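Entry 14. Structure prediction run on the chain below.
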Amino acid sequence: MKPKTVGRTDGGLTVLPPVDVCGLWADSIILTLDGERRVADLRVGDRVITRDSGTAVLTGIARHTRHTPAVRIMAGSLGHTRPEQDVTLPADQPMLVRDWRAKALFGDAQVLVPAERLVDGEFVTLEPAQDMTLFVLDFAVPHILYVDGLELASSPEMRLDARAA
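Output returned:
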């Protein structure tokens, strides 16, 4: 048995169960082929830069309000300029973690986890449930997006595979 697969019979990456609430604030900055843009300014047909496929065409945008716990991540707390500014996410928003935290906390080189799993009480804090107006970006398939210096899943159904490595 290889050391990276200890404790798992399939040798796969650690992925936690599906989440309920996923989405981005209107003022979040996302990378597109036209440069950095606010999420609220995106339109169907825009080409968004993704970690797993290079680019993806935005096929739909949904806006909804949910009452949900939130996670506040202080600027620079996940690495140099990661995130670039203080960020608030729904607690269930899936994030790609691929630094020392992935190995230390989850036993893998990279892991897709809800933001809530990174709460440390000092730099990443859990906020009380609040009404959040979120934008959900729809693509032909789920992707890892570059948002505010973080790598976030576009959908709660996102799963890691060889493309995201």
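DSSP finds one helix and eleven strands in the chain.
Filed with the rest of this week's runs.
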